[in-house]
Amino acid sequence: MRRVALFDFDNTLIKGDSIHKLVLYYLKQNPISFLYLWKVAYYYICYVLGIFRIEKAKDALLFPLKKMSTKEIDLFIEKEIVPNLYENVVQELEDKKEQGFLIFIVSASAEKYLKRIPLPADYFIGTRYKDNQLVGKNCVSINKVPRIEKVLKEENIEIDYDNSYGYSDSPLDIPMLDMVKNRIQVELKTGMMKEYSFVKEEDKQKTNPEEN
Question: Could you read off the pLDDT of 51-68 as tens digits, one per residue?
Answer without folding.
Answer: 878 888 898 889 999 999
